[in-house]
Predict the 3D structure of the following.
Amino acid sequence: MPNDFDLTDDTPVYVISVAAQLSGLHPQTLRAYDRLGLVSPGRTAGRGRRYSLRDILILREVQRLSQEDGVNLSGIKRILELESEWQRSRAMLAEMRAEISQLRAELESTRAVAARLAALLRSRTGGGALVPVRMPGTRSSDAAVPEGSQ
């Protein structure tokens, strides 16, 4: 059970001056990126910005894309949105694969139980059918019983 002192990469702990130093950007640049929605730091009760380690990494990536790759800020915003969407899709895919695996295991277990029950019933009734079978061309009230189980 997590407590108030557990820190993750998403825990907003760095004030803007520290975040600026860690990211290599000016505090005004961080404010501008916040206004543009490139990074969304946490806020204190007094509305002060608090940056997480993940925010710092995003700021470094914004700087790299801008300076090394020459991508404009709207392009960077789109890249960050697509990367975020891709990460969510990967997580959802992993969850779905795990769920499919679980469902397959449950299906196999159910099939095994059904097979054991069918074998047990056949051994006790001399090979009788588990369910009345409706032969083609008959009404449901005229359900036929398969041969050998009469």
